[in-house]
Design a protein that fits this description.
Elements: E1 2-3, E2 9-10, H1 13-16, E3 29-33, E4 40-44, H2 45-50, E5 53-55, E6 62-64, H3 67-90
Antiparallel strand pairs: 1-2, 3-4, 5-6
């Protein structure tokens, strides 16, 4: 598992054993901050796709997030990763696209 920006963990060829990076599935997590106490609770992307709130384990406040915006962001990120994979597949040994 490779940590990415803001604590996002992503599967990579080295950590997952496959050729593709994936945003959904497996152990991919995103730290969700509590508005009341600031505690960041890691939640799996798959869990976040199915839920829109949880109880903060630190202060027991309900933490809500914009579910539809999250789903759209995941979709956009997966499209961007697919485009990146396609570009990387066309790169030659010298690191330039299309050669």
């Amino acid at each position: 598992m490779t940590p990415g920006p803001d604590g996002l963990k992503m599967h990579t060829p080295q950590s997952h054993g496959g050729p593709d990076m994936m945003l959904t599935g497996g152990e991919t997590t995103i730290p969700i901050p509590c508005a009341k106490c600031g505690r960041k609770t890691p939640k799996a992307v798959e869990w976040l796709q199915k839920n829109d709130s949880f109880v903060c384990p630190g202060c027991h406040a309900e933490v809500r997030f914009k579910h539809q915006q999250f789903l759209q962001a995941v979709s956009d990120a997966e499209k961007a990763l697919a485009s990146l994979r396609k570009t990387m597949a066309t790169m030659g040994k010298n690191g330039r696209p299309g050669r």
